[in-house]
Amino acid sequence: MTETVEFRPLPADIGEHELLVNMGPSHPSTHGVLRVVLRVDGETVVDALPDLGFLHRCFEKLAESWTWPQVVPLTDRLDYVSAMTNELAYVIAVEKLAGIEVPERAQVIRVIMAELQRIASHLVWFGSFANDLGATTPFLYAIREREHILDLFEAAAGARLTYSYLRIGGVRNDLPPGFVEKCRDFLRLMPKRLKEYENLLLKNVIFVARTKGVGRLTREQAIAYGCSGPVLRASGVDFDLRRDEPYAAYGRFDIDVPVGTEGDVYDRTVCRFEEMRASLKIIAQALDALEPGETMAKVPRVLKPPAGDVYSRIESPRGEVGVYLVSTGGTGPYRVKWRAPSFVHLESLPLMCRGHYVADVVANIGSIDIILGEVDR
Amino acid sequence: MRPATDLRSARLAAAAVLQAELASRVPSARTTVRPDGELEVRVEPSELRQAAEVLRTAGSHPLNYLSCVSGVDWPDRGVIEVVYTLHSMPDPSTKASLRSEVARDADPPVLPSLAEVWPTAGFQEREVYDLLGVRFEGHPDLRRILLDESFVGYPLRKDFVDTRPPRRRVTREDYQP
Amino acid sequence: MGVKARRGRADMPCPRLEDVRLVEEISQHSIPASSPLRRVLPGVFMGSLQQLFNWGRKNSLWYMTFGLACCAIEMMATGASRYDLDRFGSFFRASPRQADFMFISGTVNEKMASRVKLLYDQMAEPKWILAMGACACTGGPFAAGYNVVPGIDKVIPVDVYVPGCPPRPEALLDGLLRLQKLAGIEGFRRVPKETCRQDRVPKGQEGEERP
């Protein structure tokens, strides 16, 4: 029998002129299964209440019953658009706990993969964000470029989306022959394409009108609400984990960090755009820094890190991905807590939406760049 | 570019300052400084709010950024531990983890909410309530967040058992709208 | 042997893939090459109205992407630049009312299962379900989770299963082509025998909860 699907949460004090409008979980613009209950007065949003959990897949509970290396493919599927950075967050945390030293070549390969993944993730964001606002063409252009990156990933890791390439102690296999040349070809191709996208979207009058002044987050609000990544930087906070708390081989490279001023949707868009350019620069430096060497440290076959806990964070395309790991000396984690940036950013969604129109809710959700896999875990 | 050793020594120095401040204002807090510069603070639930206020405002780089709220179930010790991982923003020279334990068999286990100290604790404390059953007193909107409202039990507890009946495959003939 | 072309009947069971080959053998609806009529009327096809409808339907199957998780990204990639779904006539429609079939791509959990069912019921007949990915087929890597439904076929009937984690775009296109074959042998009227629930439940078992 069909159970009734109620509107939850139901605010008790809804006014006379107000309406409750349900957005999602099946909605073309919510980037996945997000439900937002909008309290609207005419066209103006009075409050927006996110309702989560439609993709809760019990990652943390499952990780407790698997071994340390077995959790790596599971982390792939959390933030599925940027799987490499998820794996990176987890393996760095385990290596900190177990005291494993990763070889230099593996560190540089990790940087290359993470930055390529950053570009791929921002391309997906760019395409779907433009699609939400009504511009359907940029999506096809962005996916065209992303296919080049996925070709590179497929050559190195064997998969297009969920790789299981980074392992505890290094990477699974060395880069295949021809990878470096193909990567350099991509680096030559991309700046022209980014210019094309800029002309297509960022300078478009309609886009600017829909995004400037919308969803403003002040600097204090951004820090208080735990924002990170492009959302934080657009609000004027000059902070990037790759530069300020370096991990893998990032400490060796020159990293450009775009910082916005207004904290609105337009600034977040420009921040992500410039991040793509900065990533190209980092990949070029990393390719030059590749030295022959080992790609995997000597890790025991059955890994048993000593008892203890660690919180380790990295900069993913969405923001700060943190892993809180607790070990009791066993073959698998005792507790894995995944700090997902999209989950934390959704808390500031009501702040961004209040006082704006319903159409701006779509722009706000798109500008946070949520991926429900990591929101719900 | 900031070398790792530079960050570590900055953190160790900041941790020492915070340790002294906590010792004077929250004397019952047990603090340890880890080798990587993280300050571990353990307090009783009654002192949690006060310790949080001290950490948010003290030192040269106050801990104004709450990164993560994690709940850990320790059935052999009979407690649920909630860990607040804090950093300073934008200069990450201070890192601390504020921990508090509450008896897991209490009905219900209660901790004071830190949502007024760090607003980002709102969703994260709701998640700890949802998955582990710890009630946060003073939380503006304590409801389940990831699981359905009708879900019974707290899955991340170590003694949780999945009692759903097995589902059968549905074919076109016996599908009911 | 005399296999008859199937006409649409209300109680026709779900077509199977084996039936497809038989129907294709006997539905040679173009004029034989040896016939002198061919020189005069080369482009005339003969066939039943049902076959015409099926041909139109299978070559313009509009899908409602029910993108739940990782497979949704691969589905988007299949519909986009390099592997194009539009060349098969398939086009994304956001509303279940306008869609012929649904790609269920991603893990379904208890909270979402009721919504998927609601959307499936809102689709108009004839409708098909393509379960994309290991999670939609059997629960995938998350099958042991306390909140995960082990496969969407526990909630709604599935016609095509495309395994993979995520399946490559080529695999998804293969699944779509099989779905096109299924659509090609569809009956004219496939209306459920009883639409009222009271007729369905056997006497003496009213009020019993189904799992």
Q: Rounded to an integer, what's the Rg of chain B over CA atoms?
A: 20 Å
- Helix and strand sequence of chain B: HEEHEEEEHE
Q: Portion of residues in helices of chain A?
A: 40-55%
Helix percent band of chain B: 10-25%
Please identify the top-level CATH class of chain A.
Mainly Alpha
Tell me the strand percentage band of chain A.
Answer: 5-15%
Return the domain count of chain B. 1
CATH level-3 fold name of chain A? Cytochrome-c3 Hydrogenase, chain B
The biggest sheet of chain B, with number of strands, parallel, antiparallel or mixed sense and barrel status, is: 5 strands, mixed
Description:
The complex is a heterotrimer of chains A (377), B (177) and C (211). Chain A has helices spanning 59-65, 71-76, 83-98, 104-132, 137-157, 179-202, 205-211, 219-224, 230-234, 241-244, 265-288, 341-345, 349-353, 358-368, 372-376, and strands at 18-23, 35-41, 44-51, 166-167, 170-171, 308-316, 319-327, 335-339. Chain A has 377 residues and is of the alpha+beta class. Chain A has a single domain, classed as Cytochrome-c3 Hydrogenase, chain B, CATH 1.10.645.10. Chain A is globular and about 65 Å long. Chain B has a single domain (4-154), classed as Beta Polymerase, domain 2 (2-Layer Sandwich). Chain B has 3 helices and 7 strands; from the N terminus they run αββαββββαβ. The longest helix of chain B is centred in the first third of the chain and has 22 residues, at 4-25. Chain B is elongated, with a radius of gyration of 20 Å. The N and C termini of chain B lie far apart (61 Å). With 211 residues, chain C is α/β, with parallel strands linked by helices. The longest helix of chain C is centred in the last third of the chain and has 16 residues, at 169-184. Chain C is globular, with a radius of gyration of 20 Å. The relative contact order of chain C is 0.17. Residues 1-11, 191-201 and 206-211 of chain C have low confidence and may be disordered.
